[in-house]
Task: inverse folding
């Protein structure tokens, strides 16, 4: 009789523990969907889904690693749709070695392909006025920025991480 009670007790305990673990996982998923975009990475870290640094992702897709400000380290990337969302801590401008300037919103989105970030939302560049950047592509030593018209720049100027200078509005 003791052996049967031990087996029943073990089975019951195992079921209870499994239910509790599933409940914790559900709670984490619920927490993930209810908090802001910038902190989802923390939930993914707790769940064991570590992502590579943004610079490594950009290298993997043959993009210049310095196109985003140095402190833009948190991002989301959906490998199925290729949608990239980069979280910039504060609205800022970044000046590059070739005297070009990019202005970044708090959230930058686009679709990442090999050598191209397309359908960009959240980046502007200064031509004579501030103009929305719609895509950035790389071609060997060149970097092309489409903002109303295509501007070709030296890729080398965008291969170094730079600090953004805080501004009031995008």
Result:
């Amino acid at each position: 009789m003791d052996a049967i009670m031990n087996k029943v007790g073990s089975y019951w305990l195992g079921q209870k523990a499994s239910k509790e673990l599933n409940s914790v996982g559900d709670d984490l998923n619920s927490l993930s969907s209810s908090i802001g975009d910038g902190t989802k990475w923390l939930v993914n870290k707790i769940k064991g889904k570590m992502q590579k640094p943004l610079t490594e992702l950009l290298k993997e897709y043959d993009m210049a690693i310095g196109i985003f400000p140095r402190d833009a380290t948190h991002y989301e990337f959906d490998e199925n749709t290729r949608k990239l969302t980069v979280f910039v801590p504060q609205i800022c401008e970044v000046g590059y070695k070739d005297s070009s300037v990019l202005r970044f919103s708090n959230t930058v989105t686009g679709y990442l392909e090999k050598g191209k970030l397309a359908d960009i939302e959240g980046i502007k560049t200064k031509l004579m006025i501030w103009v929305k950047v719609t895509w950035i592509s790389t071609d060997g030593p060149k970097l092309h920025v489409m903002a109303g018209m295509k501007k070709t720049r030296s890729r080398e100027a965008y291969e170094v991480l730079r600090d953004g200078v805080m501004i009031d509005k995008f």
